[in-house]
Specification:
The chain is α+β, with helices and mostly antiparallel strands and about 140 residues long. The chain has three helices and six strands. The protein has two domains: about 35 residues; about 90 residues, Alpha-Beta Plaits (2-Layer Sandwich), CATH 3.30.70. The protein is globular and about 40 Å long.
Length: about 140
Amino acid sequence: MKYIYLAVVFIGLMATSCHSTKSATSSNTETVTTTKEVKPFRVEKEKVVAATGEDASVSNHKYYIIWGSFQHQENAKKLKNELIEKYQAQACILVNEAGWYRVCFENFNKEKKARERITALRIEYPNFEEMWLLINKK
């Protein structure tokens, strides 16, 4: 009789401890699955101006989200048009002092807003992982 009583108490303790562990595990799992890691992005400082055929006012901004870089303006134009069609981007083409054409996805005057936007885009679109921040040295 003594052994039966101990067995019942032991089983009761096990059931109670398993329940609280299960609850903690569910809570931890939920937290882990809702968090998404975003890799750091590249930041470069260089002097850029609007490329030939672009609205000159785009050169007035300080921060640009760059999607691609090309040696030939025709290749930059193709990407710009694709970004406008697929993502309704405010795309433009800039050129740096070395003659590289930078395809800008969006531009900003505040660094914090530009950084937040890159992070949000990279979470929403995993294929945007290569975009980077260009700071215009003016």
